[in-house]
Design brief:
- The chain has 376 residues and is α/β, with parallel strands linked by helices.
- It has two domains: 203 residues, Glycogen Phosphorylase B (Rossmann fold, 3-Layer(aba) Sandwich); 155 residues, Rossmann fold, CATH 3.40.50.
- Helix content is 40%, strand content 17%.
- It is built from 13 helices and 13 strands.
- Strands 3-2-1-4-5-6-7 form a seven-stranded parallel β-sheet, with helices on both faces.
- Helix 1 packs across helix 13 and helix 6 crosses helix 11.
- It is globular.
Length: 376
Amino acid sequence: MKIALVHNLPAGGQKRAFFEQVKRLSTHHQLDLFIPVTANESYLPLIPFVREVFSFSFRYYPRFPANLYSVYVELPQMYKKMAEAINTRSYDMVFAGSCFLTQTPYIFRYLRVPSIYFCPEPKREFYETIPRVSNHLTYSLTLPFRLPLKSIDRTNARNATRIVTISQFAKTQVDNAYGSNSRVNYLGVDAHRFKPSDEKKEHIILTVGDFSLLKGHDFLIRVLSHIPKSTRPTLVVIGNEGVEKEYLENLAKEKGVKIEIYDGISDDQLVRWYNRAKVFTYASSKEPFGLVLLEAACCGIPIIAVEDGGIAEILRTVPQSIMVSRDENVFAEALTDRMADRPSIGERKLQNALISKKWSWEKTVERLEKIMREIV
């Protein structure tokens, strides 16, 4: 098929998921990439997998209130031009990821070819209370001016031919928000990249996710404060974006917890951290999937996570993992037990093989191609 790819994604898990699917689609299909100038193509670039790249500019003002003009006036005009370019080039379909400015991109309103919207979750700020410390006043004061985005996001999504999401939990959230009947297509993991190594274990626990309170990093800091100082591990937090880094550092200092925060590291460095940590911890709130759980599982590291969102849909297939309630004392006790686990390199390699068989990107793309054939 001749497929037009569209995204306006920042660095992070959604870009990785889009990247891995595009990488494998490129072996069977002819792909062209259509992006706004604001799309992040330095992190996991798609350019190596496409025939042509079409970049579209628009006047983007990142600060309030000029950013409202960018999103409400300039952005739809840009997407309309992009759609016109796609409509005149005889594509079989469009495969589009999210837009960090509106969640669902405007482009679906203007397309005249079948389309799939890869939608991990709706725009959560309009459907739940988002915890925040930094920029709380600014956020609250500007929220009324952003409320039109809820309707924009919903209308854009309803114009996609098909919405594909990433878990049963995410499907419920997406369908409730958009009035849709989305399809679930579970993500995968590159078990050749994320694999066990003989890195020396250190007295650290690891978590991965944006510097947002939705990821539960603050919860993990408080959990560690319940562990005696003599046995308390260091918390390593790896992320890409978010505004709560300073708050997390201050909270850790207040609670007497050692913390190391790393921003925008390479995949090779990430694999090293997975193998150096004693336990991978995860406390994200209403996480639709949790791709990093699969990465950690492939490295054979013991996992402890809060049972929330779509996490159980992954961890029920991972031997070296447990789920607990969002209770600091319960989590601290379970974490202490987990730190005593010492799976051998053989056990870790066996788990890698198990995860790669169950959760491969090749299976993800096979299911995606089936959905594509249905709508073309």
